[in-house]
Amino acid sequence: MPNYKLLYFDFRGRAEPARMMFALAGCEYVDDRFTHEEWLERKTDKEMFPIGQAPVLLVDDKVIPQSGAISRYLARELDFYGANSLEGAQIEIILETMGDIEKQLMPLYVNQDEAKKVEMTKAFIETSKPYFSYLEQLIKEAGGKHFVGNKVSLADIHIFNMLDMMTNSKYKIEGLLDSYPQLRAFCKSFRDEGPLKSYLESRPVAEI
């Protein structure tokens, strides 16, 4: 087993799926967190942060930037990428669907105009309906516990992390899952009864 070191800000964000996989796998790693102020100095290290972004995963002496690459690498290494190629493809479908949702979400999150926030929130809830409806149908067809296969996969982890951020952080969107009872039930079960329960209860408190 290689030595792992994950470098990211001191909140959940884009590194949280990696942290969840480490916790689920019982895999030791160094969780190197830093503040925004510390980042201003640390990002000048081009060997550790070759594109000036975080997170970065250090695997022995190999640097892996980009959160998507980190998540997929760990999912394959730690057995969260499905039992076969078809399940892997199903996981990728879900990751890309969540990526489409995130693209629509970002203008709302970076908006600084409170006067526009209500209308932008309504617009996001409306335009994201096809994606959430699709995910609602997928989890219903899968039986409600796991999106792909019969155990936790990167799909479950990624969806929970994003929905948790959208419903349980300073960026909370009121009523987001009101029309999606299956997704709401999945999140509650994953948080309260799933194998990550102890990790979720003990992880550092963060606004996002």
Description:
The chain has 208 residues and is α+β, with helices and mostly antiparallel strands. The protein has 2 domains: 4-79, Glutaredoxin, CATH 3.40.30.10; 85-193, Glutathione S-transferase Yfyf (Class Pi), Chain A, domain 2 (Up-down Bundle), CATH 1.20.1050. It has 9 helices and 4 strands. The protein has helices at residues 16-25, 36-42, 67-77, 85-110, 114-127, 129-141, 154-167, 181-192, 197-202, and strands spanning 4-9, 30-34, 56-59, 62-65. It has a 4-stranded mixed sheet with strand order 2-1-3-4. The two termini are 31 Å apart. The relative contact order is 0.13. This is Glutathione transferase.
Q: What's the SSE pattern?
A: EHEHEEHHHHHHH
Main sheet specs: 4 strands, mixed
Strand numbers in spatial order across the main sheet: 2-1-3-4
Q: State the name of the first-level CATH class of the largest domain.
A: Mainly Alpha
Distance linking N and C termini: 31 Å
Strands, count:
4
Binned strand content: 5-15%
Q: Give the C-alpha Rg.
A: 17 Å
Return the CATH architecture of the largest domain: Up-down Bundle
Estimate percent helicity. Answer: 40-55%
Alpha-beta classification = alpha+beta
Rounded mean pLDDT score: 94
Instruction: Please tell me the total number of domains.
Output: 2
Give start-end ranges of low-pLDDT stretches: none
Shape: globular
The CATH topology name of the largest domain reads Glutathione S-transferase Yfyf (Class Pi), Chain A, domain 2
> How many H/I helical runs?
9
GO biological process, one term: glutathione metabolic process
Organism: Strongylocentrotus purpuratus
Protein name: Glutathione transferase
GO molecular function, one term: glutathione transferase activity
